[in-house]
Design goal:
The complex is a heterodimer of chains A (418) and B (163).
Chain A (H helix, E strand, L loop, with lengths): L2 H21 L7 H13 L5 H30 L2 H13 L3 H19 L1 H18 L5 H13 L9 H10 L3 H26 L1 H5 L15 H19 L5 H17 L5 H7 L2 H29 L6 H18 L1 H12 L4 H13 L9 H10 L8 H30 L2
Helix pairs in contact in A: 1-2, 1-14, 1-18, 2-14, 3-8, 3-12, 3-13, 3-14, 4-5, 4-6, 5-6, 5-7, 6-7, 7-9, 8-16, 8-17, 9-19, 11-12, 14-16, 15-16, 15-17, 15-19, 16-17, 17-19
Chain B lengths: L1 E6 L4 H6 L9 E9 H12 L11 H23 L4 E7 L1 H8 L5 E5 L14 H9 L3 E5 L21
Parallel strand pairs in B: 1-2, 1-4, 2-3, 4-5
Helix pairs in contact in B: 2-3, 4-5
The chains are: A mainly alpha (418), B alpha/beta (163).
Chain lengths: 418, 163
Amino acid sequence: MTGVTAEVSSLVALLAVIVVAVARPKGWSEAWFAVPLAVALLVTGAVSTSSAWSETRRLLPVVGFLALILAMAQLCDREGLFAAVGGHVARVSGDRPHRLLLGVFVTASVTTAVLSLDATVVLLTPVVFATAARLGTRPSPHVHACSHLANTASLLLPVSNLTNLLAFAVCGLSFARFTGLMALPWLVAIAVEYVVLRRFFRADLAAGARPAAQPHDVPLPRYALVVLAATLVGFAVASSLSLDPAWAALLGVLALAVRALGRRRTTVREVVVSANPGFLAFVLALGVIVKGVLDHGLSQVLARVVPGGTSWPALLAVAGIAALLANLVNNLPAVLALLPIVTPIGAGAVLAVLVGVNVGPNLTYVGSLATLLWRRVVHRHEHEVSLAGFTRLGLLTVPAGLVAATTALWAMLQVTGG
Amino acid sequence: MKVVIWLTEGTWPACVGAARWVPADADVELLFVVDDDIAAAASGAHAGLMGRGTHGDPGGQVAALSAVAADELLASAAQALGRPAARTRRHGRVEHEVVEASAGADLLVCARDGERSRLGPHSLGPATRFVVDHAPCQVLLVWPGPPPGIESMQHPPHPPHHR
């Protein structure tokens, strides 16, 4: 197969996978479409077997680590962690919506950082809504805070986002060093969200609250919290001993799963399903397809666009390009395409890509323009969301968050000599 | 006479309290509108997670919780009202639904919802602003708490400019 044909067929496969991932046929895993397409590229020779194998071997540990984090979040939910945190935040907030917003910010930021953005979107958001409803306050600011922080607050740890795990595998930083460099950008990006959301929803927050009843005291599940804390320490220790931090995640999952299974709070099937095997296969297939697109031309194009060096303007440009790409086609293909280009530049550039692909998706409320267009086409006869409001909120938070977080990253690199 | 009382979280008791100015023979309808944008925001965040399938989308759960919370609020309001009233739960774009629901009514009761410590501007949120501007009937706008005294107006208005 010639280079041009290989590039075109890889691009067609990538576009097909993105279309399917955006359309989300009900009851089907995206992997059912992505895996055969990746295999087709292999069979036709558009991607060489050795190239695909090396990419799969590189991605397998990343995907395994992600599976463990997803399972850990589900097990924490089964231990009652999110419900207990909701009750705790309700008690502290009382009838003050501003205080509830602060509580939601802390909870959503920590949940996203430690248990990944999936936990905040899937497990925490309904709890936050229920908490706001129980306090008789308008839920809009708090639910929007969860949706935004699932992206913005996923900058801190390698485990906070799949994009981070992919970058962590190539950037050569230890777990502690990654976290140390990203702590300030994480805080700054969250602060931007807080200032904007507080102002954007000021009328809703000023409307007050009418607690329906005294919030009942749900005790925090101590065992789950201790396991989580120990796992976090385990990440740093394992990484400093040059061991894969995924081993710490495995121990954490085992500690939670054995107890939950013993108490019949979960089943083996539920633990396996919560690790989302279909998604993991999808990521591997997507990796192979993107590799095909990169090898036959895209990597030269991107290398010409992406500036070298880790000066402040260069980092801003890298974060901007990453955010743009993420907004066009979603941040997963974007980060897979950009990482091979920026890795030789250095860890600073890799982390700038993460700022772009993690903060950027809030520009549209559905993560990318492709998804937004699809939803507009499909839902045109239903009640339409106020796209203007969502877009205004995205425009207020994302550019400011990108610049602030990238500047903080640049400052951290200067201070620590990165 | 038909009166629609639009209830929102936080300020609804004031609207129910304002019913004392409504004639005893008026038909009263308590209205709550579930904001579809909230479930859409939850669902949109899940749509942004590529490759996770349709499983776990919190939008449906949030929509179901919204309906329950709305019914509970309507029930509390009906109890506080202490007179017969119809209860209506709608969903969609809040401001549009309220304006549509007040078509055919003689009076719409709603509450101010801005900062209470700072009296203005922005005394109305975007939805209430739209409703006040577009309501197809008379509007009674009430304070969510005790109205401020006259002393709250610290700076008297400037005299009109003369050319």
